[in-house]
Amino acid sequence: MVRPRRAGCGTKSRQDVTRYYLGVDGGGTNCRVRLADENLVTLADAGGGRSNLQIDNGEPAFRSISEGTRQVFAKAGLDFSETANTYACFGMAGGRLASARDAFAARPWPFAAVKVYDDIDIARAGAHGGEDGGVIIVGTGSAALAVVDGQRYQAGGWGFHIGDQMSGAILGRELIRRTVEATDGLVPGSPLIDAVLTRFGSVDAIMDWSFPRDERPAPAAGGAPNTLLGRAPAEFGAFVPMLMDYFEQGDPVARELIALEMGYVETYVRWFKARGVAKLAAVGGFGARLYPLLTARYGSFIVNPRHEPLHGAVILAKQNFAA
Q1: For residue 36, what are the β-bridge partners?
Q2: Which residue in 26, 42, 214, 281 has the most C-beta neighbors within 10 A?
Q3: Any idea where the domains of the chain sit in the sequence?
Q4: What residues contact residue 240 under an 8 Å CB cut-off, 6+ apart?
Q5: Sign of CA dihedral 182, 164, 26, 99
């Protein structure tokens, strides 16, 4: 909420006060903060800890951004009191729910005003310099967002268990499944399958790996003493660089899996085009490696990101709170 100030004797009017814009790229494992001037020229960057809004009701995110803000003002050589003339935009992991965004924006921030977005919004704004267009995030997870004539459209991003079809985590899991099936003789193998099997040592080891056990004693009424736990999405996604390397070498199984990936992408491309999207960018580590395939299939519809998501947050800060 913007806090108005009165211009008094010996003080500058609001119109004469220098304005600053602060952007936050709040990731699940780390937080990045950028301070920019009125022309969106970067004055300083800083980093911090995890900042997912779904972790401990956003408390770690609040601490990370607060500390990052102090760091970025110090690096820029500005007194911290200038936060009162600073307009902030946060793009947050775990920010899909409006209730989580609103609650986080209502915290006691020192800024003139704050707007909280889902992290995909700042990725899209950065990719297109704040202009209309669509973006797919293709990393450990996946999601899609477009803005066309001021209308916002969002799909995906529902997490590893029920969504994230384009993600590295889903494709990595498919690679592990394919390795087990090939070892059983159900489907053909390939050098990629051999490499995965060599990494684990045996299919039995793959099974053990897929269900790590919580060795902590269970409560008396807790049932089985060891609870079966699933591997985290990032642990499956870690196999994508290997898959892409073998794909580029012509491995047949890698080609089948990338064809599966491109089928998922095609579903989203149709969704974008049905909503009038004229240009699409991809962000995320896996998305960057897919660019040759994307441009070969979709031509000029695919564009390179103009800015990183962090700068997208700064762009949105100015768009929301321009003087």
Answers
A1: 21, 42
A2: 26
A3: 14-129+307-321, 168-301
A4: 168, 171, 172, 285, 286, 289
A5: negative
With both helix axes pointing from N to C terminus, report the angle between 252-274 and 285-298 in degrees, rounded to the nearest 10: 70
Other residues' Cβ atoms within 10 Å of the Cβ of residue 230: 13
Residue 238 has which token pair?
Answer: 């870690």
What six digits make up the tokens of 18? 């220098």
Select the CATH number that applies to the domain covering 14-129+307-321 from these four: 3.30.70.270, 3.30.420.40, 3.40.50.2020, 3.40.50.880: 3.30.420.40
Would you say 156 and 285 are in contact if contact means Cβ atoms under 8 Å apart? no
- Is 168-301 a domain of CATH 3.30.420? yes
Residues 6+ apart with CB under 8 A from 50: 27, 28, 29, 30, 31, 60, 61, 64
What is the C-alpha separation between 55 and 61, in angstroms, rounded? Answer: 8
Asked if 14-129+307-321 and 168-301 have one fold, the answer is yes
Q: Give 274-288 as a 3 state SS string.
A: HCCCCCEEEECHHHH
- State the pLDDT at residue 15: 59
The dihedrals phi and psi of 47, each to the nearest 5 degrees, come to -130, 165
Reported as a single tens digit per residue, the pLDDT across 105-146 is 999 999 999 999 999 999 999 999 999 999 999 998 899 999
Which residues of the chain carry a pLDDT beneath 50?
A: 1-11, 224-225
Q: CB–CB of 119/95 below 8 Å?
A: yes
